[in-house]
Amino acid sequence: MTDLSALPPANACADIPVLRERGQREVFCGLTGIVWLHRKMQDAFFLVVGSRTCAHLIQSAAGVMIFAEPRFGTAILTDRDLAGMADANEELDRICVTLLERRPDIRALFLVGSCPSEVIKLDLAKAAERLNSRLLPRVRVLNYSGSGIETTFTQGEDNALKAMVPLLPATDDKQLLVVGCLADVVEDQFQRCFEALGIGPVHFFPARRASDLPPVGRNTLVLPAQPFNGETIRALVARGTTVLSAPYPFGVEGTTAWLAAAAREWDVAPGRFAAVTTPMIERARKGLERHRRHLAGKRLFMLPDSQLEIPLARFLHREMGMDPVEIGTPYLDRQMIAAELPLLPATATLSEGQHLERQLDRVRATAPDLVVCGLGLANPLEAEGFATKWSIELVFTPIHGYEQAGDLAEIFARPSERRARLRV
Predict the structure, then answer these.
(1) In the chain, which stretches have pLDDT less than 50?
(2) Predicted model pTM
(3) Domain containing 107 — which CATH number?
(4) How far apart are alpha carbons 301 and 288 in whole angstroms?
């Protein structure tokens, strides 16, 4: 079993220097979060108010076949809308009503702002209020921004969940709230684990139905599952909840520490904790060992993209033996990663923000064995001879928990395995 007492104290994070960069950025916008949010909340529809470019982005990112009927779409702003020659609000209302008549299964409609809608100052909050006066209680309309002007792609989830926080019912009961979009299979695994440990009741936010809103209150303990939901967490704190600080559940060490944070609040006996987790830990370590030989000793460079970089660098360094050269993240939210920072190697450079040209120069100068980056950079870097891994795959793939630890390691081992086969 992982010795949790051996983890460094969380207050050591204040001593880690950070290289802050401002310049050219190469990231997806917050609209991309729709791709996994619409899969999770099965009674929700996400309507982007944007341009044809927004529509092409979402369609390409989701990979939806032409005959599928997804729970997202785009209300396209035309030149007449952008020039102020048409009443965009009137047209938006018409589109929403028509959509909901066609899709009676929808119980929550998210109006998602984009760069074009924000440039022309289209007030989607007012639009949601106006539509709610017509559509409640059958359908609730919410709004949030997915604009690339202000957000990186994982912040779309944060903005969507934050928009839901004011709607959560109140409770004074002691309970655990796991915050962050998780694949259904991962949620089920964690639920079984919590039940075996005697922790509960447990709610997950978001739930599988947007209309199933978990209650919150002063006795709600919040356990973040994703490091990029900082605004949602702060909104929940304003509702009176208490946040548990722990590494994120990636790999054996992170998952054990994450579960232990909840177990301490429910006074779970060490023997019971060990009895529940040890079989899962042993299976997970076997899954990791298959890929460790491809990763141990390899040098890693993580360009800023998803905000998962810091906990994943911790996993790759401490459990897979990789040597992080630089760990870049779009935003460094110290509240959300306070338990992760002390677990990073002191030799790594930690950078916040992006100045693309300078970072690419450092990639070339350090010649890492693996570069984790956005889709737009992967092919050019491969052409220069670098092995790459798309960071967006880490959001689309179930990677949390013990059962997915081997799959997580395989994502990073795959480029090395592929190159080894090609050399043969």
Answers:
(1) 1-6, 8-14, 65-66
(2) 0.92
(3) 3.40.50.1980
(4) 21
